[in-house]
Design goal:
Layout (H helix, E strand, L loop, with lengths): L9 H14 L2 H19 L4 H16 L3 H19 L4 H16 L3 H19 L4 H15 L3
Helix pairs in contact: 1-2, 2-3, 3-4, 3-5, 4-5, 5-6, 6-7
Length: about 150
Amino acid sequence: MDRQIPSRILPALGRGLLFLVHRGDHHRSTTLGERLVADRERLLGPEHPDTLRARANLASFYRSAGRTADAIAIGEQVLADRERLLGPEHPDTLGARANLAASYWSAGRTADAIAIGEQVLADSERLLGPEHPDTLGARANLEIMRRDRP
C-alpha cells in the first residue's frame, strides 16, 4: 500500500525529522526524509523551494547516518538546481555549497571540501559581510576542515 503523507502535515513532519536526527535515530530520519522528498516532489514539483530544502535535509540526514555517497549525490544535485534556479550568489546556494563541502569532508575528500569551503567563505564575506552569522559559520567550518583532516 502506498502511504502518502497528507500535504497539510508536511511542514510538521519536516520539523519532526530534525528532532529524530538530533536524537540520533538515523534509520527513521532517512526513511521519513525519503518519503517527505517524494511527497513534496509529487505535491509541489521538483523545483519548488520546499522540495529543494527537503532534498538538502535528506542529504544531511544521509551524512549523519554515514551514507556519504548518497549525501554527496543529492548534495551535488541540490547545488546544481539552486545555482540554476537562484543563481550562484543566493544565500541558499551558498548553504548548498557549504553542505556539499561537509559531505565531501565526511567522505574523506578533504581537498575538495577545503576548496569549496574557501569559496563559501570568500563569497559569504563579499555578499554578507565579515561579521554575518553565516560568514562566521563558514569560517569556523573551514578551520575545522583544515585542522581536523581525516
